[in-house]
From TrEMBL:
In the N-terminal section; belongs to the NnrE/AIBP family. Belongs to the NnrE/AIBP family. Residues 226-507 form the YjeF C-terminal domain. It comes from Emticicia aquatica. Its cofactor is K(+); Mg(2+). This is Bifunctional NAD(P)H-hydrate repair enzyme. PANTHER family: ATP-DEPENDENT (S)-NAD(P)H-HYDRATE DEHYDRATASE (PTHR12592:SF0), ATP-DEPENDENT (S)-NAD(P)H-HYDRATE DEHYDRATASE FAMILY MEMBER (PTHR12592). It holds the Pfam family Carb_kinase. Catalyzes the epimerization of the S- and R-forms of NAD(P)HX, a damaged form of NAD(P)H that is a result of enzymatic or heat-dependent hydration. This is a prerequisite for the S-specific NAD(P)H-hydrate dehydratase to allow the repair of both epimers of NAD(P)HX. Binds 1 potassium ion per subunit. Keywords: ATP-binding, Isomerase, Lyase, Metal-binding, Multifunctional enzyme, NAD, NADP, Nucleotide-binding, Potassium. Its EC number is 4.2.1.136, 5.1.99.6. Homotetramer. It comes from the Bacteria.
Length: 507
C-alpha cells in the first residue's frame, strides 16, 4: 500500500472529484460515513457521550458530517466549533447548515472557555487534518491542551490535529494525543515513526473510494506492507519436491557464552522452510547445537584459537555449489580477527553471487574501521538487519529525528546497493531503488534479547529457498512480526521470549 504525501493526497482527491465524477461535498460524506462505520463498532451507542471538536476547514467539515450521522443512531452528542480564524471552507459551511437543522452547535471563540469532561466521554478530534500549515498557537493550542488533559479517549479524524503528515514537528509543538486515529484511505508517513507514537495512538485506515488508477500511477517512495500484499509472496511447496529444492543454508553464528544466539537463529531458520542448514561455529558449541537442534549440521571452526569465532576456512571448494544462502552475525563477538573472517566470507559470497543476510556482531565488526572501509566488502543486494544503534554504528553518526533517520537509511541503501531492515516498531526496509517499505506486524513484546537472531534465521531460510532479497526481507520481517503477535496472544507481551516467536512461526 502506498504512503502518499499531502499534496499527492490532495491530487487524488481532486482527480476522484473530476473523474468519478463526484461532488467534493459527497466525497466528504463518504469519508465521514466511513469514519462513522468504524466509530459505531468501537464506541457503542449508549455507552458513551460524544464530544466533537471541529475546526473550520474540511477536517472540521468531516466532524460536522460525522455529528449529523451519529445523531440518528442515538448517540448523546455535543458539537463544538473552534473559531480560530475568519476563513471557513465551503464544505464546512454546507455541513454546518445541514447539521444545525438537527442539533445546535456550540462556539468556542476565546481561551477562557470551559468544557467539563466526564468518565463516559469520548472526544472526536476534527480540528485540523492534512491541511495543517504551521504549529498550533493561540486558541487552537489552548483547545488541544485542554483536550489532552481531559483523560478521556480521543479519536482523531484523518490525523491528530497539530501533527504534520509528512514532516517533523518541533519538539515543543502542541499536538492531539489520540487514542485512535481513523485515517482516510492512505496511511500517512507520520504514523510510521516512533517519535509520533504518543500522538497517533492505534491507527486505522478506512476506504473512501479515491480513484485507484490515480493512486496506481503515483511513484511512491514509501510503502506500508499490508498482510494481504505480503502473504501473496509466499511460494507454495510443490508436491514433487525434495530437501534440495528448498536450499542449503549456511549460518555463521555463536561464540563462547553466546551459543544461544546461534541456536535461536538456526531453529528459526529450520522452522521457515529451508531444506538443509549447516551451522558454522566454534568447536565447543558442537555438542550444544547437536543436542538442541539435531536437524542442523555442524561445521566447526579450527580449534586452537581459544573460543573466539575465527574462521580461515572459507574457500571456493567448501562454499560454491554447496550453499544457496549465507547468514552471518548473531553472537559472533567483535574482534579484529573475527572481522577478517567476516570480510573473507563476504568477498567469497560476492564472487559466487551467494545472497547474504548480515546481522548483529557481523555489522559491528564491519563498522570497526574509522573510515568504514569494510563496508565495501558487503556483496550488493545483501540484507542487513541492524537495530538503530547498530545502524548508527554503520553510519558513524546519529540523527536528529525520525525523518532524518529515514533520509540516512535511504542514502545508505542506495549508495551501498544493499537492503537495510532497520528494526523497531514498523521495521523500515530500505531498498537499493530508494524506496522504503514499512512492516505492519509485530509488537513491543518482541523488544527482547534473541528476537533479532530469530529474524536473521528466518530471512536466511527464505534466501536459501530462492526468494529474491527484496521478497525475503519483506516476507521475513512480516512473518517474524506475525509470529511475535501470536506469541503475545498466547503468552502476553511481558512474558513472551524469543523462543516463543519461533514456536509461533507459521506460513
Ligand atoms: N482526500 C481526502 O483524504 C479527503 C480529505 N478530507 C478531509 O479534509 C482534510 C483536509 O482539509 P483542509 O481543508 O485541506 O485542511 P484542514 O481542515 O486540515 O485545515 C483547514 C485550514 O486551516 C488553516 N490552518 C492550517 N494550519 C493552521 C494552524 N496551525 N493554525 C491556524 N490555521 C491553520 C489552513 O488554512 C487550512 O487550509 C483532511 O484531513 C480530511 O479530514 C475530505 O473530507 C474527504 C477527502
Ligand atoms: K484531526
Amino acid at each position: 500500500m502506498k504512503i502518499l504525501f499531502v499534496n499527492e493526497i490532495r491530487e487524488a482527491d481532486a482527480y476522484t472529484i473530476l473523474h468519478e465524477p463526484i461532488d467534493s461535498i459527497d466525497l466528504m460524506e463518504r469519508a465521514s460515513s466511513a469514519f462513522v462505520s468504524w466509530f459505531k463498532e468501537n464506541y457503542l451507542v449508549g455507552n458513551y457521550k460524544v464530544k466533537i471538536f471541529c475546526g473550520l476547514g474540511d477536517n472540521g467539515g468531516d466532524g460536522l458530517a460525522i455529528a449529523r450521522m451519529l445523531h440518528p443512531l442515538g448517540y448523546d452528542l455535543e458539537v463544538f466549533v473552534v473559531k480560530f480564524s475568519k476563513k471557513i471552507s465551503e464544505n464546512f459551511d454546507q455541513n454546518l447548515y445541514r447539521l444545525e437543522k438537527q442539533i445546535p452547535v456550540k462556539i468556542i471563540d476565546n481561551e477562557s472557555f470551559i468544557v467539563n469532561f466526564e468518565k463516559k466521554d469520548v472526544i472526536i478530534d476534527a480540528l485540523l487534518g492534512s491541511g495543517l500549515s504551521r504549529s498550533l498557537e493561540g486558541l487552537l493550542k489552548s483547545v488541544v491542551e485542554k483536550l489532552n488533559e481531559s483523560e478521556v479517549p480521543i479519536i482523531s479524524v484523518d490525523i491528530p490535529s497539530g501533527l504534520f503528515a509528512n514532516k517533523s514537528n518541533n519538539l515543543s509543538d502542541t499536538i492531539i494525543k489520540a487514542t485512535h486515529t481513523v485515517s482516510f484511505q492512505i496511511p500517512k508517513l507520520a504514523f510510521m515513526l516512533p517519535q509520533n507514537a504518543e500522538f497517533v495512538g492505534d491507527w486505522h485506515i478506512v476506504d473512501i473510494g479515491l480513484n485507484e488508477d490515480f493512486i496506481e500511477k503515483v511513484t511512491a517512495k514509501f510503502f506500508y506492507s499490508t498482510p494481504l500484499e505480503v502473504e501473496k509472496l509466499i511460494k507454495p511447496r510443490k508436491k514433487f519436491s525434495h530437501k534440495g529444492t528448498f536450499g542449503h543454508a549456511l549460518l555463521v553464528s555463536g561464540s563462547y557464552g553466546m551459543m544461544g544466539a546461534a541456536i535461536l537463529s538456526a531453529r528459526a531458520c529450520m522452522r521457515s522452510g529451508v531444506g538443509k542448514l549447516t551451522v558454522h561455529s566454534i568447536p565447543s558449541g558442537l555438542a550444544i547445537m547437536q543436542m538442541l537442534l539435531p536437524e542442523a549440521m555442524y561445521w566447526e571452526t579450527a580449534s586452537g584459537e581459544s573460543d573466539l569465532f575465527i574462521s580461515t576456512q572459507y574457500n571456493i571448494e567448501n562454499i560454491a555449489n554447496k550453499f544457496q544462502a549465507v547468514g552471518i552475525g548473531p553472537g559472533l563477538g567483535v574482534n579484529i580477527k573475527i572481522k577478517e573472517s567476516i570480510e573473507q566470507l563476504c568477498e567469497l559470497c560476492a564472487e559466487l553471487s551467494i545472497p547474504m543476510v548480515i546481522d548483529a556482531d557481523a555489522l559491528n565488526n564491519l563498522s570497526m574501521d574509522e573510515n568504514r572501509e569494510s563496508l565495501s566488502k558487503i556483496p550488493k543486494n545483501s540484507i542487513l538487519t541492524p537495530h538503530p544503534k547498530e545502524f548508527q554504528n554503520l553510519l558513524n553518526k546519529s540523527w536528529k529525528d525520525d525523518y532524518e533517520k529515514l533520509e540516512l537509511l535511504t542514502q545508505f541503501a542506495v549508495n551501498q546497493g544493499v537492503i537495510v531492515c532497520l528494526k523497531g516498531a514498523n521495521t523500515a526496509i530500505a531498498l537499493p531503488d530508494g524506496t522504503i517499505h514499512f512492516n505492519s506486524s509485530g509488537n513491543a513484546g518482541m523488544a527482547k534479547a534473541g528476537s533479532g537472531d530469530v529474524l536473521t534465521g528466518m530471512i536466511l531460510a527464505l534466501l536459501a529457498q530462492g526468494y529474491s532479497p527484496k521478497e525475503a526481507a519483506i516476507l521475513g520481517v512480516y512473518q517474524h512480526g506475525l509470529a511475535g503477535d501470536k506469541a503475545a496472544q498466547n503468552r502476553g507481551m511481558n512474558n513472551m521470549i524469543a523462543s516463543d516467536i519461533i514456536e509461533n512461526i507459521r506460513f
